Amino acid sequence: MNHDSYSDTYIREILHGVKTIAMVGASPINVRPSYFAFKYLAQRGYDMIPVNPGHVGKSLLGKPFVGTVLDIDRPVDMIDIFRSSSHIMPVVDDALKMNPLPRVIWMQLGARDDAAAAKAEAAGLEVVMNRCPKIEYGRLSSEISWMGVNSRTLSSKRAPIPTQGMRLSLNRTSVGGGDTAASDRAAKNKAELT
Predict the structure, then answer these.
(1) What residues have CB less than 8 Å from 35, skipping those under 6 apart?
(2) Any residues with CB less than 8 A from the CB of 182 and at least 6 apart, and which?
(3) What pairs with residue 49 in β-bridges?
(4) Could you report the per-residue pLDDT of 28-66, keeping only the tens digit for each?
């Protein structure tokens, strides 16, 4: 798989398909990016598990910390790695010891390990690198456009403001991965300009 670019369909299917997410490197400090991502995903209805050996005995938004992914007592769909690239391989090695295996390994913005990705893919897992599920969810649902950010989604209808635990539709047509004639034309025109 080309990990320099992901189709919106690939990201959308992952975010639709996962229910339980273990966030490795989650922090209870409310100014850390991992705290914001954890809280955001939990508010969108995902079952979040904070993983950080330095915070075992504490909880994050009512969810108790575990030391490693191997300490999780239930099946996990996705491992979201909020660690630097040099710490990814040990997390992937632990994830591959889980039973059942997670479906997805997701590496946050700035994190990339091609060898770890190849190892996970060889075991049948899907991999995303250098992306944030919070940002991708907001972009694909058009929620991010509420802040004035161009989400590249084509719609005359604004996405609804979510309530606690509400998942927004990720099926809004997007320039990068839409499946309508309008979005296909927009993507083609963009490609011709570059």
Answers:
(1) 26, 27, 28, 29, 60
(2) 154, 173
(3) 22
(4) 999 999 999 999 999 999 999 999 999 999 999 999 999
